């Protein structure tokens, strides 16, 4: 059992390093830095916040203190920066987790990943309307957006529309190698 787990972890790490050659040159840290120091891999359901242990199918969670955003995702992997996440209220932390989880099935659809997180929070009862506004203030107010993410005000309008049910459920789209939450 030990060997099987070790083998699975080795494969995951190998995949990460392989992807890093293509996905990370433009980013401010390398994947080896991401994996250095106190980073650790958590099995599905092991990451907890406020007594909750959200799951994202069989997706593992990499706790990386050197990751440059609150969260990110790779294929079959959610990345969380514990130092940055610690600064957020627990409901916002759950939003970040479920946004990155959304990419596991939705691919590169940012609005869809946001909306899936909002719908999950509303359905599970931990996300109230005022929490949507808080998420906007805490994560996106200073975001200029990029070619994948709309600017903060527009993104927040989508969040509110999603919460009210005004926009349809997200659709799957082809994935890309690395997603970050894009909060700056
Ligand atoms: Zn995203």
Explain how this protein is built.
- This protein has 184 residues and is of the alpha+beta class.
- The protein has one domain (2-180).
- Helices cover 47% and strands 9% of the residues.
- The chain has helices spanning 2-23, 31-34, 82-85, 90-106, 110-124, 129-140, 152-164, and strands at 40-42, 60-63, 71-74, 77-80, 179-180.
- Strands 1-2-4-3-5 form a five-stranded mixed beta sheet.
- Strand 3 and strand 4 form a beta hairpin.
- The longest helix has 22 residues, at 2-23.
- Zinc ion is lined by residues 99, 103, 110, 113, 179, 181.
How are the SSEs placed, and which strands pair?
Elements lengths: L1 H22 L7 H4 L5 E3 L17 E4 L7 E4 L2 E4 L1 H4 L4 H17 L3 H15 L4 H12 L11 H13 L14 E2 L4
Parallel strand pairs: 2-4
Antiparallel strand pairs: 1-2, 3-4, 3-5
Distance between the termini: 42 Å
Number of helices: 7
Number of strands: 5
Q: Which regions have little confidence, pLDDT < 50, spanning 5+ residues?
A: 1-26
Please state the average pLDDT score: 83
Structural class: alpha+beta
* Overall radius of gyration: 16 Å
Beta-strand percentage range: 5-15%
Instruction: Tell me the strand order in the biggest sheet.
Output: 1-2-4-3-5
Number of domains: 1
Helix content: 40-55%
The main β sheet shows up as: 5 strands, mixed
Strand/helix succession: HHEEEEHHHHHE
Q: What's the shape?
A: globular
Bound molecules: zinc ion
